[in-house]
Design brief:
This protein has 14 helices and 21 strands. By secondary structure, it is α+β, with helices and mostly antiparallel strands. Helix 1 (about 20-30) packs parallel to helix 13, helix 4 (about 100-115) packs across helix 13 and helix 5 (about 125-140) crosses helix 12 (about 385-400).
Length: about 475
Amino acid sequence: MTSGAGSRKYDVIVVGSGPAGIFTALELAGRNGALRVALLDKGPDLNHRLCPTKRQGVPCRRCRPCSIVTGWGGAGAFSDGKLTLTPEVGGSLDQYLGREALADLIEYVDRVYLRFGAPERVYGGDAEAIRDLARRAAAADMALIPARIRHLGTERCYDILQAMHAHLAPRVEIMTGTEVAAVEVGGAGGAASGVVLAGGPRLDAKYVVCAPGREGASWFAQEAGRIGLEMETNPVDIGVRVELPAAVTEHITESVYESKLIYYTKSFDDRVRVFCMAPHGEVVIENNDGLITVNGHSYAGKQTDLTNFALLVSKMFTEPFKEPLTYGRNIAALANMLGGGVLVQRLGDLLAGRRSTPKRIERGMVHPSLAEATPGDLSLVLPYRHLVDILEMMQALDKVAPGVYSRHTLLYGVEVKFYSARPRLTQCLETQVSNLFAIGDGAGVTRGLVQASVSGVWIAREILRREGLAVTASDAATRA
């Protein structure tokens, strides 16, 4: 592994070493060095992804790049580590691959994760528990999307990614601490021809794969505009992270681990969903290109007495508005301005029209797992429509899990998912520029570890096909 550019000429350059980029490299490397591959990331190697907040207990220093969301493994390295093993959840790859091919590749990447150390247990196989939860959800006007979940745990994610790094290091050139400034277009017929690194050096390649991750979504959107890619607008997901006693949702998390529930509000007919449930976990912060947002983690080896999950309101904007990323960033920036980072508020204080204070938080029955969150007033941050949607969803959830709508429940804000810019792509996830591919969460086509990993496998196989190194069914089965 190198920390800077080695050779200047490659067959394939992959920008981003999150799951999409790693699985691209894993698939390409399986051809025994037939292609020269470079895997680049502006963040550090996994061993050097050290966050001062975690190590020293200090407030977020807004490091750039942020070690929590950039570097080897991407944002998934310190995530809850949930592998969602169903085509219905985690992105829109079915629009490109078709449902059957997507389901097959989900099984394939799951076997790869198992090979590198994922646990055997899969949640969501209890048909009776799922039927019971679906009935109760329907009675509350919510739809349940059944999903099989393999939970890695935050600390096990680290071990799996280390194993993948050890496997790839002799086979591809890994360049962490290497920021890509621009994608170069100018090859034969206007095809991708390489990348320009921050500071000026250029790396040439026949194929360029952009897998920027959520933190790189803004950079990718800017690059897409610069080189003239036609973009499609994805919904913007903005909301809060809810924290409450684990006992409130234990009847759900013990059987299905997380409940993928969708609700359409009566007030505005907006779509609200439960996302990224972290049973017995903790609330954490993320630094998204200088903006502090909130997330949640669960660990395989340790537990808290709290559970947290996100409630996200999805909004699709229409003409003439074309900047959903900017919209989400401005709301996050407002929360940062008012609270110096993440805000936390008791539901009871929100409903009473008052801000939470340290004393009110202390008097509550739920004490924040994110100690550095600033007590405040989320009604000064979230748009009225979003706030009404979230409160409606919490009332519906209270019918399935009584206690959700308690005045002691904590709300953290804001949680924003930055995957709102998606270029027009072919079936093989190629942009309008030949040999330039866009994959993963940062390109707006996936929303989670599994489909991001699938997108990497899919385009790697397309590159292999173009190079006369197509993967056969027996090859895939052997490598899995």
